[in-house]
Protein 1
Amino acid sequence: MERHVTPRVPEYFNFIANSNVLSATAPAKINLGLCVLRKRTDGYHDLATVFHPIGWADTLTADYADAVSLTCTDATLPIDEENLVVRAARLLKASAGVDRGAVMHLTKVLPHGAGLGGGSSDAATALQILCRLWRLDCTATSLASLALYLGSDVPFFLRRCTAYAQGRGEMLSPLEDYRFPFSLAVVVNPVRISTAWAFRHVEVRETGRPDLAEVVHSNDLDRWRRELTNDFEGPVCSKWPVLSRTKSALLRAGASFASLTGTGSGVYGVFESHKCAEEAAQEAAARGCAIWCEAPS
């Protein structure tokens, strides 16, 4: 039996004027350090990383309907069960015993396969927006359980705050008081990287690892350069040298720190000068890359 309440609407949810349509952003993330510690008996890997949300975002809208359906601005993406948004909607519907549907529209801005978590963020946002639309009494714990079923990093996007992640990425310790005081430029090259390929070629190492949460929290860029590493950067950049060139270009443009994010084709630069960050992003755009630039949070 489904329970109906009127939950608090998070600040990133909006009602579209003169309608019942809900709209919400689905932000990207970057990885501040990413260590692959061990391969587990279940086939997954234990990781350590710090997820940091950024302002680059997709937008999802939802309205009442008899059945679950999805449209998308990106014609290359599936709009059936292969899309995590549809899977999230049907999972929530079945779990809560909902007898209605929703018509959803995804404005896709984030490049896919970029290590930015776009699909996972879309799925988490679908869970949240449909809880509100269907007036369900969804606890944080129940949503997190559904989110983990959809993907290892989906639970992070339910909270949208910087967090230290362990396990598959689902064991989250929020850095509640953390502030990212730097400008950021994110550059995504038009290459597609298989996550499975990246995990097959990464070097697994458990010992001699830094405390990533403590290193990030220090905001000491000298420490970041010494201790914040992404284990996937070596094999991925060897296979796709354009990513190594992108990182070098960001550093030449004034980035104090630069890194691959996740296992994808996204590379970010951390800048102490916002003007330099903007110029670096525009230079990358001129090379045909997708870009995002933002000022300190």
Note: Residues 58 and 108 are 5 Å apart (CA to CA).
Protein 2
Amino acid sequence: MKRWLAPALLAVAAAAVLPLSAGEGDRIVLYPAYGDGDTCIVEGRVIATREYAEVGDDDGRLRNLRRNLGWLINDERKGVAVEVELGGHRLQTRSDREGYFRVDARLALLPGWHEVRARSAAGEGAGTLLVVSRENALGLISDVDDTILVSEVTRKARLLANSLLANAAQREAVAGMAVLYAQTLATNADPSSAPLFYLSASPRQLHEPISDFVARNGFPAGVLITKRVTNDRSSEPLFDQFAYKIRHIEDILARLPWVRFILVGDDGERDPEVYEWLQRHYPERIAAVWIRRVSPGADDMPLHDAQQDLAALLGGVDMEPAP
């Protein structure tokens, strides 16, 4: 990619977003959460309110650019008292200097999806929490970019265009993946509470448009994990995807010890290496590894031992969802 392209696009993007002034109220974003029926962690962020244009199939690039940069550029609210309501319980917390808050709770909750609500003196928000049934023994942990969402990570100019100049209604899903995930998780005793995690390296500011994409394209409901990127030491590693993914997958394995997981990713970045490390260190917990080949010349490069090419799996998938 030409050196001037990224700075030029970011300059135009910043100019496009600047007129979007912050409102007086609070906007509370709750990130998807999960628990084991006894404990759970709920995280969110308090930011200034801002109007976002509705997503449409015929939106132009400038409209998309303005909206997408609006997700990335926001004003955090620090030190805000927040009340989180879950399962009839009300829990108190406060946002940190970056606007984030976290609640660790010991609550007895039934398996399935639960609504979470959070309120401040100047705003409120809603989210979901998945309690995984102990009868469900098989889960999926899936990468997002170039695994279920066509992003073209290996072509940086195309990646930037896909990320900034298109919206959730216009982005392309990898054919067959939604059906494959649904069929795989249907083998569980309670598929409605199956442990499905979408592990994205995108910043948390983009979790809402990614969630929109997942829902629009018929993927099973799951817990979307995105990266906390801040200006202080609490930030997760911006470029070290290996450390970031290992940390979150190990956390999932620790919190759901009765579940074996299929790890799904692509070879555009470091998913094969990450998953190979996990296969070696947690052989009894990793049921399979599926890799989508997207790198130039990937077909000539062998996969790690015990890793499967997704193309072969998708060849046997009925692309139409079951009625």
Note: The longest strand covers residues 39-48.
Protein 3
Amino acid sequence: MGYALEFFDDPHAFLAAAEPLLSAEPVRCTVVASVTARHARSGDSARPVDAPAPWWVVVRDEAGVPVSAGMRTAPMVPYPPYLLAMPEEAAVLLARTLHERGESVEVVNGYVPTIDVFGAATIALSGGSPSETERTSLYEVTELVEPPAVEGRFRIAREDEVDLVQGWFDLFGPDASEQAGRVDPHPAIETRESTRGRIVAGDVWLWEAPDGTPVSVTAFNPPSFGVARVGPVYTPKEHRGHGYAAAGVAAISRRLLDEGARVCLFADGQNKTSTGVYLRLGYRPIAVTGGLRILAG
């Protein structure tokens, strides 16, 4: 079967073209749907001026039906593409097309085995060798299991706390890699401006100890095609072991479920601490995703 690629530089046009796919598989498409929706709401206002222009792609089958999609919207170096699951032939076609467009790909994120096929095709064209950065699972919760009660309160982050939240977001990657026993660091997850935008939107919450000290952060992406995604979740080392992360994730999940959304999150399979928390809360794995680094030859 032959496949065709349709590229977009306008998130609104992409959402319209990809709607049949995104609405049919809203949980599995959560990253593409929520990130694109954020671009549609705010444009490039939170994007560094030196970052390349974002793009989106729809994969169509011979009948013109959307069967997969991808995007290159990450605001941080090396600007990795994110790919939904797609047929091998389509993944190879995308790798070849990006090569012909002169786009260098050092890291690719998304669904397994699509990223492995894409990586192998990219290496065949440009040289290099593959190095797995992480393997994560996509989890969904339908019946939330309440965790033990924790002292303190859960509150929305204030705009004057952007430096605190950004500092914790910056630590999330290195700490997640350390907990998972990896050397390759987790990529940065937010810029300061994107963090500010999420705080202003009310999508970042803090667990506050009884003395008023913030001790943990839980963020979420608001529903897109009926699916909300929790994350990132971070507790500094000095505050771990008290149940703050579980309490925060439970509170956000409960709120989103009560509002009628389906709720999901990603967790690193090698990080037994975080996956244990999510499993105890009732989250269950439904798909495997990850990242692949292409090392220079």
Note: The helical segments are 11-24, 30-42, 88-100, 114-126, 162-180, 192-200, 244-258, 272-280.
Protein 4
Amino acid sequence: MTPRPAHLPPVALVAFDIDGTLLPTRGEQMSARTIAALRAAVAAGVEVVVATGRRAAYALPLLEPAGLAPETVLISSNGASTREFGGAEMHRFFLDLATSRALCAELRPFGGTMVFTFDKVGRGELVLESLERLHDRIALWVDANLPFIEQVDPLERVFDRGDAPMQGMICGTVAQMHAAETHLLTTPFAARVEMHRTEYVDKDLSILDILPLGCNKGVALARLAEQRGIARENVMAVGDNWNDLEMLRWAGQPVLMGNAAELLHAEAERGGWQVCATNDEDGAAQALEQALEALVEAGNVAAEAQTA
């Protein structure tokens, strides 16, 4: 783990990814140290934000053990939705119907695992064409989300209802999703959507998220910081995967997880980012603890200056 750069100003807001950052590699429970660090940040007056590729309903149960306040902000679906833990909506963005319908046929050759996320709760929140094909790739995700899944074949028919989705997702091997992204970049869709890839190389699994144009974690975080009146220099962001890249590039205090891909480590080296320990070593908690120690030191220096 690299030390926190001494020149950084005190942190006022910190944004964390979930998978590979707050969570260990195996299991879906935050460690006691991670929970303690999050609570300590809140107690110190630092705003804690969670930014994830997961949709809200799939993320919030994982965060409950931390006991964060209902006003805590969740950036979900890779930036397509920003809301409070308690349910208050802040921002939502949608793919247009024509684009969504056309994407079904465009991406069907890459495994037929397309899923669309709709802004509703319950069955039909997730719509896909083949439960069997998706189960072959991400069985645990399918099993956990069965109450929310509706199967529509062909998938294009779901858009006859007139509802626009917030997010599209296709998954497959790392090579398949690289090919799918490369293909879309050669089509008119490249100018109409955002694409964000997440990779789990050890599982040979990759997820390609397709979002409304202009949506990513970095844009959502910048928007929130501006609303709060917090300068980017006072924003810390912690992540481990490609869908965290815009958030890490925007934040004044980026922290890359030690378990991130090699190419992301190269990005961190070029940008002078802090690199923390892995998710299985409580790296996110360690980085936050360092930031909080620096915050206390800055406060002590300020207090001494006032009494001098």
Note: The chain has a mean pLDDT of 95.
